[in-house]
């Protein structure tokens, strides 16, 4: 008598929330590997990043969305549209709220639109170690009075508290069906895109508030070499000549440090040695260039014309 095949489950879970609610930290914790960049600067996630986790017989495909906020620029608009699109396509939507901040204007705006999403909804209160229990319980009660959440979880994505319980329930909530990805795959993002995101993270880490948000990174070349290593060339686009000087730094020291840090994480993600070459180009209005949006996996909000790159500097 043959043993019946175990029932498998699979589905999509969208993590939504205001900027800096901790979505990227949580998705990396749930997946067990770095697949989304983390920064203390808000709005660092720009596109839909999918992380793939296994929980028993369930495959959970997590979608880390850009933070939802009031869009002021074209790039902002594309990011927010992408976030709500990810929520609309998911089987389960988990609203992540920074417990320390509570219900601010950005959370209020999400709560106003969330009833339009048909998927099952979970409330996840993050950073619970930063708030007193009475305030935490009052916040949970207030949010549940506004939205019909199936479950409420209280977690610390950074420390891992409560994350296993959340992952276990999500596994149970997935629909019966075959897995969409191989068992050992943790992300559907191409390595070229992940490598660009890693470098962008290192720029944020190194420059903090010195460089405005209007910078992006593209992987323009990924060539596997005969010795098993890879040659990677990336372009960092900035808006001003002054921004370019900030990225390069005195004597090229800043861009060298960025490259060294990025090279280490990219090699770990790619599981091979890499030779990383960084170029900095000024493209004054890159946020008006549809090609840049396609590279980030975003839909271009039509309106303005694009511009062309002015200059470039290389660093190894």
UniProtKB/TrEMBL annotation:
Biological process, per Gene Ontology: ribosomal small subunit assembly
Region (G2): 43-47
One example GO MF annotation: small ribosomal subunit rRNA binding
Region feature (Disordered): 297-316
Region (G5): 155-157
CDD domains: Era, KH-II_Era
Polar residues: bias regions: 304-316
GO CC term, one of those recorded: cytosol
Chain spans, region G3: 64-67
Keyword Ribonucleoprotein among UniProt keywords: no
Pfam family name, one: MMR_HSR1
Region (G4): 126-129
InterPro entries named among the record's database cross-references: G_ERA_dom (IPR030388), GTP-bd (IPR006073), GTPase_Era-like (IPR005662), KH_dom-like_a/b (IPR015946), KH_dom_type_2 (IPR004044), KH_sf_prok-type (IPR009019), P-loop_NTPase (IPR027417), Small_GTP-bd (IPR005225)
Domain named Era-type G: residues: 9-176
Compartments (UniProt record): Cytoplasm; Cell inner membrane
Topological relation to the membrane, as annotated: Peripheral membrane protein
Sites where the protein binds GTP: 17-24, 64-68, 126-129
Occurrences of domain KH type-2 (ranges): 207-284
Function per UniProt: An essential GTPase that binds both GDP and GTP, with rapid nucleotide exchange. Plays a role in 16S rRNA processing and 30S ribosomal subunit biogenesis and possibly also in cell cycle regulation and energy metabolism.
Family, per entry: Belongs to the TRAFAC class TrmE-Era-EngA-EngB-Septin-like GTPase superfamily. Era GTPase family.
Quaternary structure and interacting proteins, as annotated: Monomer.
Name of this protein: GTPase Era
Organism (species): Beijerinckia indica subsp. indica (strain ATCC 9039 / DSM 1715 / NCIMB 8712)
